Amino acid sequence: MTFxxxxxxxxxKITEQKKNLSRIFLFGFxxxxxxxxxxxxxxxxxTVLFTLLFTGALSKKEFVLIxxxxxxxxxxxxxFILITQGSIIPSSASxxxxxxxxxxxxxxxxxxxxxxxxxxxxxxxxxxxxIIIYLAALIFIGYLFRFQKVFVKKFFQIPVIKYxxxxxxxxxxxxxxxxxxxxxxxxxxxxxxxxxxxxLALLILNLLLNRSKKFKxxxxxxxxxxxxxxxxxYFHYPxxxxxxxxxTAFLEENNFFNKKVGMAQSGISGYFFDNxxxxxxxxxxxxxxxxxxxxxxxxxxxxNISILIEWKEWFDNLPSSxxxxxxxxxxxxxxxNKTLVMIKK
Length: 345
Description:
By secondary structure, the chain is mainly alpha-helical.
């Protein structure tokens, strides 16, 4: 996110024609670092560059030069991925890309919840309580439509905002269509903060302009109060990562040391237990190959995995008939209202 913000600042300089060769090199290098941070940000980088080219902010030579700089910035990493995985696309990206069997309503819910959350930074409701976010978002949109139409129009006429909004909208649409794990939308769509933060900052400044001191102090006090209340609530609300950490204690308490345990999100448990097998393909090339040809269940059977621990929605990726026939829900469960433990019959 830091590199994206730096790229936005440099984009602003370029749109103001405050550019020279060193700044062009710096812009290309920072965009390259952005792509290194997340390979999918290449889509944003290319979109922004094309908008700068078509609007005349960049010449064709400058456009090509920046692309070359980006390429050579990411080249060592691409080479490393190629020699270790046999592809320039890392497994962490390919395993989370593709059409999914997850029901459409769940995908849409996670998408809009995650999108709206960026514009409601003082409100944390937990991912299972998206109705709160929807109600707050509708009220906020209604307020903008009724009282701030001029401000919204002027904001999105700012060149740097217009160009980056285009890239962010495109990548958000790609996530909606192709991301195979909707429960990660909250993380993917955090890129919208690049627009949300300046939007909210300018909106608040516009709201406080020419107001009395009493109004300003009252408004600031309310914002601070809501912020600290929600911060306290957030830090005491179970996060997604909490359930991942609980798995290690669960494995130890149930003495699952000599049985093969399969998990998609295996990072924490796999660090402590050698019998944990990764099933999302991020650190297991055999699992990745099985996922690509839709043979993950066959891989689980071949590896003689006898325990499956994962978020409930992950099991939708496995054949329901095979699960019912060969697996059963364990009497012992991780009490996080999110994870399901199944054992082989």
